[in-house]
Amino acid sequence: MAIVLIVAGVLGLAYGSFSYTKETQEVKLGPLELSVKNKETVNIPVWAGVGAIAAGVLLLIVRK
Description:
Blueprint: H1 2-15, E1 17-29, E2 32-43, H2 46-61
Antiparallel strand pairs: 1-2
Helix pairs in contact: 1-2
């Protein structure tokens, strides 16, 4: 778990954000189908990346 937190924290600091596509509406009118796809971007705060790294290091130090 500690390694996963450290890697996730480093990736969060390196990339800063990630994007995904979300379908919001779909309409079917007989043979016609309409859909709307939105591209969403999620920003990862610096404090979250640093916190994940710190928690991972802490878990490595105090492991039982």
